[in-house]
Design brief:
2 domains; 29% helix; single chain; binds flavin-adenine dinucleotide; alpha+beta; 25% strand; D-Amino Acid Oxidase, Chain A, domain 2; nine-stranded mixed beta sheet; globular; FAD/NAD(P)-binding domain; six-stranded mixed beta sheet
């Protein structure tokens, strides 16, 4: 059992973190590990109830910009040690990611990305369609033009990561309040001085916005305008089967991805180009429908005919918190001071959250920024300093 608090919130805290997804819990844990005391996490629902508990658990280093590759490599290093560090099994399994394309014109990008990833110390290989059969023997390669494979990419179980961080937070004295909604922020003379919740007021000089798809609404409470928009994404899980699929397979042609979890289920989704972008998740809700089930099943069985025998057990939807360049927003703002955000991760916040929490805890406790935080600050949008990565898929 993870000890959770049911009493009224404390009258004061050194920091209040909003959101008990991977980002909020990683940030709270890293702040506590750096010696900050009296940290409170408020979560309006249950642990992992936002995007984290709805995600595919994929962790990959195959990107096209040097910054994303280095970030992801650092994240993989963290995931490799996470079970030991948190003292909790997070089911991190490095079966690799097989990134495929059915378009001839993608091949130069795949080759260039492989070379760049290799220069950054990531052991990705370029593969012909026939090579892919050594990694996924039942893959239908009839339309495939090429692929890349990185053996150290992998997956972890999202709820285990959340529970592992929550337990480690508890050991460090962090208080986690579930079913507790942040309803307002008090600002005095340009500084955060407190927050209000539906369980009472907390005086605090530090507010960390890890509200995922709700981060934009929360930022609005302190007068910060985030460019984030929300996009519905659906995903499904099959019955459990004995292990037969090692890597995550992902197509840069149409955004389908699928892997087999350590519990034997096939987990997968496919992006839908007709999905609009919204200001708040409440505008679209988390329903998942027949259109997704049909599109996913059709594409999965075309690429991987063996899956035609597999029964789909459950499907659901979650939100991507998308920024104009699909990169996260980290750091603070000039006004009000004491307010920080860790949000805007699009479809890659599960893989980058632990690393983001570590960098942000350093900024919050020492005031020292680093090149990563500077390059991912909110200011980049006004400066027009946007680096799009060609491998944003899903
Ligand atoms: C279908 C799908 C598949 C995905 N697959 C992957 C993947 O394979 N790999 C990957 O890296 N990423 C993936 N992602 C993206 C990833 O899930 C997110 O980027 C990541 O989980 C964001 O974590 P978070 O902690 O920032 O937000 P969340 O997990 O959404 O947590 C935010 C929390 O804040 C709480 N909250 C909000 N407002 C308030 C308030 N006012 N008061 C109190 N609490 C509040 C919410 O209840 C929520 O629990 C996927 C996402 C989806 C939807």
């Amino acid at each position: 059992m993870i000890p959770l608090h049911n009493e009224p919130v404390p009258a004061s805290a050194d920091a209040v973190v909003v959101g008990a997804g991977v980002n909020g819990l990683a940030a709270a844990y890293e702040l506590a590990r750096r010696g900050m005391c009296n940290i409170v996490v408020v979560e309006k629902n249950y642990l992992g109830s936002g995007s984290t508990g709805r995600c595919g658990g994929g962790i990959r280093q195959q990107w096209t910009t040097e910054e994303n590759i280095r970030l992801a490599k650092e994240s993989v290093d963290l995931y490799e040690n996470m079970a030991t560090e948190l003292g909790y099994q997070v089911f991190f399994r490095q079966g690799g990611y097989l990134m495929i394309t059915e378009r001839e014109e993608d091949l130069p990008a795949l080759r260039n990305a492989t070379a760049l990833q290799n220069r950054c110390g990531v052991a990705t290989e370029f593969l012909t369609p026939r090579d892919c059969l050594e990694i996924v023997p039942d893959l239908n390669i009839s339309e495939l033009k090429g692929a890349t494979f990185c053996p150290t990419d992998g997956t972890a179980y999202p709820f285990a990561v959340v529970w592992g961080y929550a337990r480690a937070c508890h050991r460090h004295g962090v208080k986690i309040f579930i079913r507790t909604t942040l309803t307002g922020v008090e600002i005095t003379a340009g500084r955060v001085t407190g927050v209000t919740t539906d369980r009472g007021r907390i005086a605090t000089p530090v507010l960390v916005n890890c509200a995922g798809p709700w981060a934009r609404s929360l930022a609005g409470m302190v007068g910060v305008d985030l460019p984030n928009r929300q996009e519905r994404h659906e995903i499904m899980v099959s019955e459990s089967l004995k292990p037969f699929l090692d890597p995550m397979v992902i197509s840069i042609t149409n955004g389908i991805y699928f892997s087999q979890s350590m519990r034997g289920e096939i987990v997968g989704g496919i992006g839908d180009p007709t999905e609009p972008k919204w200001d708040r998740p409440e505008q679209f809700g988390f329903h998942s429908g027949l259109r997704f089930a049909v599109r996913f099943a059709r594409e999965l069985t075309r690429l991987y005919p063996r899956a035609a025998q597999v029964r789909m057990m459950r499907q659901w939807a979650g939100a991507y918190d998308v920024t104009p360049d699909h990169r996260p927003i980290l750091g603070g703002v000039a006004d009000p001071t004491g307010y920080y955000h860790i949000c805007g991760f699009s479809g890659h916040g599960f893989m980058l959250g632990p690393m983001a929490g570590r960098h942000m805890a350093r900024l919050i406790t020492t005031g020292e920024s680093d090149p990563l935080i500077t390059s991912l600050s909110l200011d980049r949008f006004a400066a027009g300093d946007l680096q799009a990565d060609a491998f944003v898929v899903g």
